[in-house]
Amino acid sequence: MKDISSKKVQIDKGQATIFATVAIASVVTIFSLVSSKGLWSNSRYLAKVIDKKETARDQLEENKAAIGELTKAYEKFDNQETNLMGGSKNGTTDRDGSNGTLILNALPNTYDFPALASSIEKMLAGYQIDSITGSDDIIAQSSSAQAQATEIPFSFTVTTNYSELKRLVGSFDKSIRPFSLTKIEFSGNGDALKVDIAAKTYYQPNTSLKITEETVK
Fold this sequence. Notes:
Blueprint (H helix, E strand, L loop, with lengths): L1 H77 L20 H8 L6 H11 L4 E6 L4 H6 L6 E11 L1 H13 L5 E8 L5 E11 L14
Antiparallel strand pairs: 1-2, 2-4, 3-4
């Protein structure tokens, strides 16, 4: 009888041991699966981060290589003795100057009406200037977020004769800076034509380089 009881106790202990072993193994298995899933997710995330960093590095290397080429191309363009307008790089007339200077003068980066008025006054040299009007629109300048050509409207009044009026209109057509004459009205006759001209030109804000951050998911 004692032997039977002893065997039963041993069986119960064995079952308890097996149950404990299975339970522990199950916990370990579940923990391993959860850990493996976490490690797999982390490894995929790190792989994405590495891929993005390599892409950014390659782009930086391309940009770095392009800087030298762009610098050489610009210097060659800017140092031409005869500029795009057929003038001299070192001359002093309106058609002279380096190509870089001509481009900046043709399309300035600010809404600077006083500077524009000064340029128009030079173009009207020899004419009787009655008025040059416009506005230094700081609000329009500050609100222009995109780097695109923006209009600068202005008007002026001169007293001249008909033949000189044709020459005046032609001088705006030949200017390196783009002008659009939107309205021409004149009164009087002979050598005393009073001419009112409404026109517009343009400026283009600087383009800025934006460095952005990307969240890798």
